[in-house]
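Recall that a protein's primary structure is simply its ordered list of amino acids. Everything else, from secondary elements to tertiary packing, is in principle encoded there. The following example makes that idea concrete.
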Amino acid sequence: MPAGELRGQYLGNVLNLDHLSVELAGMTLGLQGKLLLAEDAGPSFDVALQWADLQWPLTTSEAEISSSQGKLFLTGSASAYEFELAADLAGKDIPQSKWHG
């Protein structure tokens, strides 16, 4: 059964996510960040996602792709964003490797 924890606050037009964690089928996900909901522009964000033992599909014993650990940083808006990824990946057609960018 999935388990999780959420801590944050919404003040004015800013959602501060202090901590969101989710555990499912041996996988762990964590998210922190800020979402700005400006009236005169679209939403903008600054978030960090980290994980351990992530796989796809989520609930099968044989994964198409898996990541023992990783981090993703995402900033900007839906139309103009930047991201940075650091992850260990492996899969049926992907040799075990480290991805950065």
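The beta strands are 3-11, 14-24, 27-36, 44-56, 65-77, 81-91, 94-100. The radius of gyration is 16 Å.
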